[in-house]
Amino acid sequence: SENILGGTRYLASLLQRFHHNTALAVAAFNAGPGRVEKSGCVPAIRETRQFVGRVLFYYELFQRRSDERND
Length: 71
Hints:
The protein starts with a helix and ends with a helix. The chain has one domain. It has helices spanning 2-17, 22-31, 33-39, 46-70. It is mainly alpha-helical. Helix 1 (2-17) crosses helix 2 (22-31), helix 2 packs across helix 3 (33-39) and helix 2 (22-31) crosses helix 4. The chain is built from four helices and no strands. 82% of the residues lie in helices and 0% in strands. The radius of gyration is 13 Å and the shape is globular.
């Protein structure tokens, strides 16, 4: 549970650092914030692009399910 809490705090700090741009924060979580800042976008690293795609896919899926439950 400490790892989850630490990861959550780190992701929250990245969201603030990248002005709540989820894709950039997730990319920074994977590739490091310096690489994201240097490129100004999701870096052209295959692993990072795939990671961001998977995370955003599931994020949107869970958001939709949550919205459906609240309707």
